[in-house]
Automatic annotation (TrEMBL):
This is NAD(P)H-dependent FMN reductase. GO terms for molecular function: FMN binding; oxidoreductase activity. One of its GO terms (cellular component) is cytosol. The lineage of its organism: Bacteria, Pseudomonadati, Pseudomonadota, Alphaproteobacteria, Rhodobacterales. InterPro entries: Flavoprotein-like_sf (IPR029039), FMN_Rdtase-like_dom (IPR005025), NAD(P)H-dep_reductase (IPR050712). SUPFAM superfamilies: Flavoproteins (SSF52218). It comes from Gemmobacter megaterium. Gene3D superfamilies: 3.40.50.360. PANTHER family: CHROMATE REDUCTASE, NAD(P)H-DEPENDENT FMN REDUCTASE LOT6. Residues 4-146 form the NADPH-dependent FMN reductase-like domain.
Length: 194
């Protein structure tokens, strides 16, 4: 079996977002393992319209070319790591819209989460897990949560370093656990789909 392909999806599109920093960090962690091939998938690169199809692509093919391009891209992967900003106790509107723009491409695949914000994106992560279940996905139990003082220490917008290596002692163990679970679930779901 070839190495699973993992998309690291940056779930915020704001010009001042923090998401690129944890995305690059977890990408390096994932690729350093040697048991998966990960790449960043940035929602900014797809300019998705608000979901306005007749139905989910489970029931009817999407007509919007941008939605179809998104579906093709995410369909290339065996699993996902979502970089999750918490907005008002949930995921970003951009990420919810991107999840809604596809259905069959997410099915029977695994995902992990790197969350950030006041409580490390924990409430957003729980919402994402519920959405994932509806999309017939398997979530890892472990997740990376960048919260509180650690968040302020590394967020450049608050005078932080922009270097997640500065807090690796806090988040390195959870990253390893999430990636260990993600590779197990990804291999299992890939074999079952085959």
């Amino acid at each position: 079996m070839s190495k699973p392909k993992i998309a690291v999806i940056i779930g915020s599109t704001r010009p001042t977002r923090f998401g690129e920093i944890p995305a690059k960090w977890i990408l390096d962690q994932a690729n350093a393992r040697g048991d998966m091939d990960a790449e960043i998938v940035d929602l900014r690169d797809f300019d998705l319209p608000l979901f306005d199809e007749a139905a989910s692509n489970l029931w009817a093919p999407s007509k919007n070319e941008k939605a179809v391009a998104w579906q093709k891209k995410i369909g290339e992967f065996d699993g996902y790591i979502f970089i999750v900003a918490e907005y008002n106790h949930s995921i970003t509107g951009a990420l919810k819209n991107a999840l809604d723009q596809a259905y069959v491409e997410w099915n029977q695949k695994a995902f992990g989460i790197v969350g950030y914000g006041g409580v490390g994106g924990a409430r957003a992560a729980e919402h994402l897990r519920g959405i994932g279940i509806e999309l017939q996905m398997a979530s890892t139990r472990s997740a990376v949560h960048i919260a509180g003082g650690d968040f302020m220490k590394v967020h450049p917008g608050f005078g932080g370093s922009g270097n997640l290596g500065d807090i690796e002692g806090s988040i390195g163990g959870s990253a390893k656990a999430m990636l260990d679970e993600l590779i197990w679930w990804t291999k299992a779901t890939k074999a079952a789909r085959g």
